Amino acid sequence: MPRKPIPTLSGVFTPTETPAHLARDVIESALREAIMDGRIPPETPLRQEEIAALFGVSRMPVREALRRLESQGLLHIQPYKGAVVTALINQDAMDTYGVRLLLEPEALRLSLPHLSDTDLAEASARLASLRSARDSATLARLNREFHMALYRRAGNARLLYLIEQELEQEERFLRFHLSAMGTGHQARDDHDALLDAARSGDESRALALLRRHLSQAEQAIRHYLADQDNAESPAGDAPRIAGESK
């Protein structure tokens, strides 16, 4: 059987010359964005030689950039393949929401009595921007900023740091959470209701809304993964790779 051709990145990036002192960060950012927006799909091997040639650098900054992306869960190392792009919807996505369910209601409970009009106005502004945002990076940033605006008065810097780390991890699969799993409108409605409860100082309602919002997202991911498992069974059709365009 002929070997399946290895995808190349020549159609993703235009060859360029990158300053050596910026190479690691530039390559990391470029690869990350291309993975996040689906231009580099899951299971694509990333060859150091090709990346180095495309960016006009040595292999050293490429290795460093790939290690960073691996630490973010965007890549994994396979024997004979090297760095390979991971699926964006996987068990990690469900685990992230599990951790958020533990941390965020407590942060909101601590923060809610101390929220100022400025904090609430900032959260409202982020929601307004979310309604018109389209690309995954902007969606993730605005979503993170909305939640952190409501939690920032919790008075526990370590708690807020842990929450922000989980919110940053969410960017890996936010596009699919909102589109492929059809939860975009629900997320917007949840955010509006949560902000309304925060404005009125209704702690019990705000906490219930937040828990429901996070639980529904976790369930959506659980069902998505179950559907993928069913599609991979012998009786199912070939599964759609997370990140493919419909």
From TrEMBL:
<keyword id="KW-0805">Transcription regulation</keyword>
<dbReference type="InterPro" id="IPR036390">
    <property type="entry name" value="WH_DNA-bd_sf"/>
</dbReference>
<keyword id="KW-0804">Transcription</keyword>
<dbReference type="Pfam" id="PF07729">
    <property type="entry name" value="FCD"/>
</dbReference>
<dbReference type="GO" id="GO:0003700">
    <property type="term" value="F:DNA-binding transcription factor activity"/>
</dbReference>
<dbReference type="InterPro" id="IPR011711">
    <property type="entry name" value="GntR_C"/>
</dbReference>
<dbReference type="InterPro" id="IPR008920">
    <property type="entry name" value="TF_FadR/GntR_C"/>
</dbReference>
<feature type="region of interest" description="Disordered">
    <location>
        <begin position="225"/>
        <end position="246"/>
    </location>
</feature>
<dbReference type="InterPro" id="IPR000524">
    <property type="entry name" value="Tscrpt_reg_HTH_GntR"/>
</dbReference>
<dbReference type="Pfam" id="PF00392">
    <property type="entry name" value="GntR"/>
</dbReference>
<feature type="domain" description="HTH gntR-type">
    <location>
        <begin position="21"/>
        <end position="88"/>
    </location>
</feature>
<dbReference type="InterPro" id="IPR036388">
    <property type="entry name" value="WH-like_DNA-bd_sf"/>
</dbReference>
<protein>
    <submittedName>
        <fullName>GntR family transcriptional regulator</fullName>
    </submittedName>
</protein>
<keyword id="KW-0238">DNA-binding</keyword>
<dbReference type="GO" id="GO:0003677">
    <property type="term" value="F:DNA binding"/>
</dbReference>
